[in-house]
Amino acid sequence: MQNLLKERGEPAYRADQLWQWIWQKKAGDFQEMTNISKALRSSLQQEFVLQRPAVVQKKESIDGTVKLLLGLNDGFFIETVIIPEKDYYTQCISTQVGCPMGCVFCSTGCMGFKRNLTPGEIASQVLVACRHLEDTGLDSTRLTNVVLMGMGEPLLNWDAVKKAMYMMTDSLGLGISRRRLTLSTVGVRDRLQEFGSSRLGMLAVSLHAPDQDLRRRLMPGAATWDIKDLVRALEQYPLAPRERITIEYVLLKDINDSPAQARALVRLLSRVKCKVNLLAYNPGEQEGYQPPQEKTILTFEEVLRSKGLTVTLRKSKGQDISAACGQLIADS
Ligand code: SF4
């Protein structure tokens, strides 16, 4: 944008103004940009479009979670989910159309990989969510937390994700605190360290198994990186004094939910500065997987806690509208 405006003989700060209008003030039209001359606005309007993914369908859960099906320029669809917390909203955004990782319990994984999203398609999901909140009379300034945990593996689209995270955290952009922006990955060799060095957000790692054999069965795409090497990389991951990595573990009945597996998980993570997020499986379109009984979940949790791990048992939201973890699917 700086180059583009320079070619038109505009001062350097004009790019900041334009950037601010698009991301911070969420302008939907060049004509709203009142501190930019009419002549420049008209010339921009003739050459460019300000475009966001279009809301094709909205579904609202009884718990207030909203899932938006978004249409992209080339006919593909993605999903984004707005989750109401006590006094703020968390938005879960997508980074790819589909996902090549093929995790067997995940609806997105089962639809396969279609294409990467562009930086604009990733970050503008937040603009779309803010507009949805405003249109329904809700306060969009409360959308303070964003997780890159929707469709896709963000580190396989790292170049675009990096730019999108910059758009989201920049103080003239969406202004989201990096401590409230979380990238969730299965762990991609090399890119994990790059993400750590970028300091653009917090890290969550989907582990879902305490050993390589089971992880290979559940997450074939992720298992090209041996679980022990992945954990070694997590031990060396750069963290500020009070930061911790979030380990995501979806509990599947009779598959990864036994007390022995909980103990194996404790041993595996013994040198990682982390907290563990446990989540019972959300039934999707895949057959053969069930959530464990509540008693089994509590026993698993207790084993981790008793060995000194910080554990949260995440309540699943939006299950009734297939908006919960692992349930996102959008066929074009
Ligand atoms: S769980 Fe995540 S990484 Fe695995 S297939 Fe689904 S979207 Fe991809």
Automatic annotation (TrEMBL):
<keyword id="KW-0408">Iron</keyword>
<feature type="binding site">
    <location>
        <position position="103"/>
    </location>
    <ligand>
        <name>[4Fe-4S] cluster</name>
    </ligand>
</feature>
<keyword id="KW-0819">tRNA processing</keyword>
<dbReference type="Pfam" id="PF21016">
    <property type="entry name" value="RlmN_N"/>
</dbReference>
<comment type="function">
    <text>Specifically methylates position 2 of adenine 2503 in 23S rRNA and position 2 of adenine 37 in tRNAs.</text>
</comment>
<keyword id="KW-0004">4Fe-4S</keyword>
<keyword id="KW-0808">Transferase</keyword>
<feature type="active site" description="Proton acceptor">
    <location>
        <position position="79"/>
    </location>
</feature>
<comment type="similarity">
    <text>Belongs to the radical SAM superfamily. RlmN family.</text>
</comment>
<dbReference type="InterPro" id="IPR058240">
    <property type="entry name" value="rSAM_sf"/>
</dbReference>
<feature type="active site" description="S-methylcysteine intermediate">
    <location>
        <position position="325"/>
    </location>
</feature>
<feature type="binding site">
    <location>
        <position position="106"/>
    </location>
    <ligand>
        <name>[4Fe-4S] cluster</name>
    </ligand>
</feature>
<dbReference type="InterPro" id="IPR004383">
    <property type="entry name" value="rRNA_lsu_MTrfase_RlmN/Cfr"/>
</dbReference>
<keyword id="KW-0949">S-adenosyl-L-methionine</keyword>
<dbReference type="GO" id="GO:0070475">
    <property type="term" value="P:rRNA base methylation"/>
</dbReference>
<feature type="binding site">
    <location>
        <position position="184"/>
    </location>
    <ligand>
        <name>S-adenosyl-L-methionine</name>
    </ligand>
</feature>
<feature type="binding site">
    <location>
        <begin position="206"/>
        <end position="208"/>
    </location>
    <ligand>
        <name>S-adenosyl-L-methionine</name>
    </ligand>
</feature>
<feature type="binding site">
    <location>
        <begin position="152"/>
        <end position="153"/>
    </location>
    <ligand>
        <name>S-adenosyl-L-methionine</name>
    </ligand>
</feature>
<keyword id="KW-0489">Methyltransferase</keyword>
<dbReference type="GO" id="GO:0002935">
    <property type="term" value="F:tRNA (adenine(37)-C2)-methyltransferase activity"/>
</dbReference>
<dbReference type="InterPro" id="IPR013785">
    <property type="entry name" value="Aldolase_TIM"/>
</dbReference>
<keyword id="KW-0479">Metal-binding</keyword>
<dbReference type="GO" id="GO:0046872">
    <property type="term" value="F:metal ion binding"/>
</dbReference>
<keyword id="KW-0411">Iron-sulfur</keyword>
<dbReference type="InterPro" id="IPR027492">
    <property type="entry name" value="RNA_MTrfase_RlmN"/>
</dbReference>
<keyword id="KW-0963">Cytoplasm</keyword>
<dbReference type="InterPro" id="IPR007197">
    <property type="entry name" value="rSAM"/>
</dbReference>
<feature type="binding site">
    <location>
        <position position="99"/>
    </location>
    <ligand>
        <name>[4Fe-4S] cluster</name>
    </ligand>
</feature>
<dbReference type="Pfam" id="PF04055">
    <property type="entry name" value="Radical_SAM"/>
</dbReference>
<dbReference type="InterPro" id="IPR040072">
    <property type="entry name" value="Methyltransferase_A"/>
</dbReference>
<protein>
    <recommendedName>
        <fullName>Probable dual-specificity RNA methyltransferase RlmN</fullName>
        <ecNumber>2.1.1.192</ecNumber>
    </recommendedName>
</protein>
<dbReference type="GO" id="GO:0005737">
    <property type="term" value="C:cytoplasm"/>
</dbReference>
<feature type="domain" description="Radical SAM core">
    <location>
        <begin position="85"/>
        <end position="320"/>
    </location>
</feature>
<keyword id="KW-1015">Disulfide bond</keyword>
<dbReference type="GO" id="GO:0070040">
    <property type="term" value="F:rRNA (adenine(2503)-C2-)-methyltransferase activity"/>
</dbReference>
<dbReference type="GO" id="GO:0030488">
    <property type="term" value="P:tRNA methylation"/>
</dbReference>
<feature type="binding site">
    <location>
        <position position="282"/>
    </location>
    <ligand>
        <name>S-adenosyl-L-methionine</name>
    </ligand>
</feature>
<dbReference type="InterPro" id="IPR048641">
    <property type="entry name" value="RlmN_N"/>
</dbReference>
<dbReference type="GO" id="GO:0019843">
    <property type="term" value="F:rRNA binding"/>
</dbReference>
<dbReference type="GO" id="GO:0051539">
    <property type="term" value="F:4 iron, 4 sulfur cluster binding"/>
</dbReference>
<keyword id="KW-0698">rRNA processing</keyword>
<dbReference type="GO" id="GO:0000049">
    <property type="term" value="F:tRNA binding"/>
</dbReference>
